[in-house]
Amino acid sequence: xxxxxxxxxxxxGNYTANTTITISAIANSGYRFVQWNDGNTDNPRTVxxxxxxxxxxxxxxxxxxxxxxxxxxxxxxxxxFGSGDYAKDTTITIGAIANSNYRFVQWNDGITQNPxxxxxxxxxxFTAEFAVATPGMYHVSLTVNSxxxxxxxxxxxxxxxxxxTIGAIANxGYRFVQWNDGNTENPRAIxxxxxxSFIATLxxxxxxxxxxxxxxxxGITNGSGDYVAFSVVxxxxxxxxxxxxxxxxxxxxxxxxxITITQNLAFVAIFGIEDMYYVYAAPQNSTMGNVTGSDDYHxxxxxxxxxIFKREYAANSIASIVATPNADYRFVQWDDGNTDNPRxxxxxxxxxFTAIFESTVGITNISSSAISVYPNPVTDNIHIVLPxxxxxxxxxxxxxxxxxxxxxxxxxxxxxxVSNLANGIYIYNVGTEKEKRQxxxxxx
Length: 444
Hints:
Strand content: over 45%
Oligomer: single chain
Number of helices: 1
Radius of gyration: 34 Å
Structural class: mainly beta
Helix content: under 10%
Number of strands: 40
Strand order of the largest sheet: 8-6-12-10
């Protein structure tokens, strides 16, 4: 062995020429075998004895240790802790404690979290930067759990009992969760009574992609699941023998397609019989209405009052579809611009139609305030006007089931894009420190 304290070997001895023997290296606790002196890493290892031979087993420490050095920019201003030797990938805590009349500002890498946890991957030096504390002033230190997800605003020195506003700004595809003390307000007003540190926790926005087949006997889909916002996901529709892929429920005809995830999505893969054509018609929003065939047969066979119409026809057959709105809604048009209802056509190929409805109920505000939200209806961007002397607010948009679709900090006359949302009715909320405005808004 290269070091008898690290391990031992077996296999020494006198052997007859051309004998095949086994040699082994046995590492002691805290050490590991690396290789033999000729570079061979087999252990145990078989060798054929053809001459006098010497092998050295090379051992090393089983864990690589790195040194973390924690220091202060001025020794009289404060103390630090966390220095030491650590195994690779160990998670440790380092911290800085300011002396009287001084305050901790940040670490040399710009991180203001104190204490903070780090993962040891190499020898490292962390310097705690202290500064003279201004009499009657306290420091509010803000950081975020991941700089790739967003940033924070509001760090600084404040007079005692001053009201400070702090906020977390999530990057696109991420959302604010909470502060390290469990508070979920964002932005948030705090009364400054001492040096304080806050960590904003952000996380990726997750959307669900739901894929179904119109008939699992005819074909299957692949790609359903939960995905991080703005992921590009490939979904596929694969017909079984004797059947063919017609298209997706949104009229896309690609059996394999890439989609960018910006909201929850649901698609139905439509499969047909090889020598028949398929007619599929559905409402854009099933809460607004349904689609059936115009004759009694089609209505009777619209399975379990489903809002969707689907049937196969021989070439050149005549098909007819009807869009029927629910209470408080009306039919507008089919997705190809046709306004006939009922609509009759000659079947010459696979067809997919979407019925578009709209509300007939006037859109009214739930509450009123000095906050203004326009236009209503909206096509691309919602604009927010805040009261005088109000700098920031939080805008939240919900669907009719109460799910949060958009949440972001806004300033006066900011624009919030809703171009990626489906047409329909949504609930908005704009909140400041003093007031809140809620209302319904129509996307069209």
